[in-house]
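Subject: complex prediction, re-run

Hi both,

The earlier run crashed halfway through, so I resubmitted it with identical inputs.
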Amino acid sequence: MGRYDAVIIGAGLAGLVTACQLARLGQKVLLLAYGHGALLLASGCIDVLGFQPASSIEPVTDPLSKLADFLEERPDHPYRFTGRDNIEAGLTAFQALVQAQGLPYLGAADRNWLLPSAAGAVHPTCLAPASLANGDLSRGGRMLIVGFPELRDFYPALISQNLNEQALGVRAEPLLVDLPPVPISDDQNVLPVELAYVFERPDFRRQVIQRLKGQTRGYDRVGFPAVLGIKRHAEVMADLESGLGKPVFEISTLPPSVPGRRLLEALRQLLVEADGRMIIGAQVVDGLIEAGRVSQIRFESANRPKVVKAENYILATGGIYGGGILTDADGGIGRVWEPIFGLPVMAETNRHRWFAPRFLEPTGQPFANFGVRVNQQLNPVDENKRPVAENLYLAGGVIAGADWTRGRTGDGVALATAAAIVKQITGRIYADGASAG
Amino acid sequence: MALQQADLDEITLSIWKQAQNTADLCVKCNICTSFCPFSNVTELFPGPKFVGPQAQRFRNPHEMSVDNSVDYCSGCGICTLVCPHGVKVMEMNSKARYKLYRRKGIPLRNRLLGRSELLGMISSPVAPVANFFLGNRLVRIVVEKMMGVHRDAPLPAFSFETFRGWYKGVHRKAGRQRRADKKVVYFHGCSTNYYEPRVGKAAMAVLEHNGYEVIVPEQACCGLPMLSNGEFEAARRYANKNIRSLVDYARDGYIILGTSTSCTLSLKSDYQHILDIDTEEARWVSRQTYDICEFLLELADAGQLKTDFKPIEATLPYHSPCQLKAHNIGLPAIDLMEMIPGVKIKHVQADCCGIAGTYGYKKEKYQISQDVGRVVFDQVKAANSALGVCDSETCRWQIRQATGLKMIHPIELLAQAYGLNYR
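This time it finished cleanly. Structure:
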C-alpha cells in the first residue's frame, strides 16, 4: 500500500480537514473511511460555541468571549487541550482551504451568525457559506420563506411562525410553490440532493423564477431550502438573485445535507489536487502499537486485510454517533471501547448511568461524552495520563468529553484539533494556499 | 416471520438472510441515493435506498420482487461504498434483479450480452467479417430493432488473434516464455482474450520482465455479465468452473492476477457475496486474487519491482472504474504509473462512466448511460491528451467512443516504459 507520512481514519470534518492541510503542506497522506457520514448529516455550517451555559436558550453571540465560562462548566471538553489559539488557527485554516475551492465561508471567531433552522429555531453558528450567512436574523427586515410541497420536511409556515413568535426583529412570511416538472422518480417526495441537481438546470430555474414572479414584492430577501445546486451552486445563486431582483439565502434542510455535500466535494477536490489519497468504503479493522508507537494499521479490502504504514496516524472516527466508540451491554454491565486500537476510554460501566432520564436533557446525555482521553498533544493517554502511542493523534468527536449536542461545539472541536495536530506533525500552521508544497 | 425453508431455492433464501442481516442497519439517511450516479439522471430509477433496504422489508421471500425499477440499477456499487452503516445495498439490489428476471423471464438480448465468451468464440475466428458487419450502420439499426442493443453503444472490435491462441501458439511454442521459480497465475478474462489481446501481452511482458513465470490456466468467463443480466444459475456454473480450475494453484500459494477489474472482483468477492458460493474453495481463490496493479505496487513497496523505466513525457487522464473502487484497495495504478519518469496522471473526479458492464449497451438505457458518463467525458477531453488510461475494458470502450481518445490499460503504459513489446 505504499508508505505514507500520515494516515487519517475518518471522512468527517476533522478527518478531511486534517488530511487536506497535511497534504497541502507537502505530506503524503492517505485517508480511509467506512462510507461517507458526518458532513451529509450536518448543517454545512461551522458551530464553535452556540449556547453557554448549556441549559441556556440564549444563543452565544461571541464564542471566544464565552470560552472561559464554558471550560469552567465542562473542564473535560477537548477545547481545554486545544486552547483558544488552535480554535482561531483552525477556523482561519478552514476558511483558507474552502476559499481556494471557490466555496467561501463567512464569519470570524469572535461572532456568531444567527441563522434560521428548518424548524424556525435560531441556529447560532460561527462560519457559514455565503448563501446561508445571508439568512442572518440579526439583520432584521422582512423575509419570504419559499418551500415546495414536493420537498417534505421543509415547512415555510412552521419556520415563519416560529421565527415571528420569537420576536427576533425579522418578519417572515411563508410561500409554497409547486415545483415545475422534475425528472425524479417519486416527484411527490423529492430529496434535497435530488432537487439540488435539478436546480443546476437553467431551464428549471427559469420556471421557478417564473412561478415566483410578483410574489416577492415588499420583501427584503427570499429564503429557500438549501437545495440551490451543488457544483454549480454559485451560478444557481446568481441566477436566482438576478431573476428575482432580491437577495437570496438558504436554510439548512433535513439530511442528506446539500451544504454538507458541497463542503465534502470541495474538500475531496482539494485533497486530490494536493496529491492525497482517499479510500471510501474501507473499514479499518485494527492497528498495532509497539513500544509506544503505532507501527501499522490494517483495513478490509474486498478479499483480505491490507496493511498500511505511516509516520503518523490520525484517528478521526467520531464518537458514539460516528462509530468511533462502540458499546455493548450485558444486563447492567456496559462495555465501551475504541474498536481500532483498543485505546483506553473514559466511560461509565454501569449501563443504567449511560442515559439521562429525559431525551433532550439540558446537561446532555452521559454516553455522548464517552471517548478516548488525550493529553495536550492530542495523543491518547491511559488512566495515569501516560501517552499510549506518540505518533497517534486524535481529532474530533472520538475524544472524551466532546459531546457536541450540548453547547454546539462539534465543528469547532474538529477544526481546532485538526490545527493542533497539523502543528504537532509539521511544526507549521496552515494559513493559505501559498504554502502548498 | 416463520420461514418454510424447504419451499425456497438457495438464492432466494440467501436474499432473505442477507436482508435480515443488513437491511435493518439502514437508518434511511439517503446518503446512498444522494451519491447514486443513475438516480440522479433518470426518473426511471428511484435510487438505491428505495429499491434496496427500503423495499426489501416488503419482499416476502415466498414471492417475487415487487419492483420493476430495480432493473435500472446498474450495479456500480457506489451505494455500498458510501453507506456509513454497513448496508450491502448493491448486493441486495443485484439479488432483487435476479428475482425480477425469474418472474419476467430473461430477454434474449440479456442472455446474449451476458455471454461475452460465447460471442467471442463464435466471432473471433471470423473477426474481419464480424467487425465489418457490426461496423455497418444499417446492421446496427437492425440489431437494435431486433435485439435491443443500442445502435450507438460502444461495441468493441473482435480480435482475429485471441490471447490464448497467441499464448499457446506464438509465445509458448516459440520458446519465448520465461521459465522461473517465481510463478503467478494470470486470469485474462474474455475481453483480453477476444477483444484486446494486447492487454494480456503487456501483462505477460511486464510480469516476465520482473522475473515471473506466468501460468495461464484453463478458465471460463468470470460470470459477471450473466450475473448482472439476471442469470444467476448460469453465472454460478461459470464461477464454479473457474474455482475448480484455480483452487489448486491458490492452495499451493500462487497469486492469481487479473487485468480486468470486474473479473478479479468476481473472484475476490462477488462469487461469495452475490452468488453465495460459500465454500472453502471459493475462499481460497478469493484470498489469492490480486488486481495486477495492486500486486505490482506491493512489489514496488517491497523494493522488488524493476524500475528501469524509460521516461515518457505525458500528462494522462485516468478514470478509476467503479468495479476497481469496490476492491477497496485505493488506486494502485496511479502510484504505479507515476513511477515512470515524466508521467503525470490527471485523475478524473467523477464516480461512473455510465457503461456499467453491459448496462449502457441496452437500447432503453443507452441515453441514461451517456448522461451519467458526461462528467467523465468532459474531464477526459479537458485533459488535452490523445491517450487516456482506465483499468476496466467496458469503461475504456465507453470513454473512447465518447471522447475519441485512445484508451489503454495501465499495464500497457508500464510495458511501454519498460520498452517491452510482445507481438
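The radius of gyration of chain B is 21 Å.

- K.
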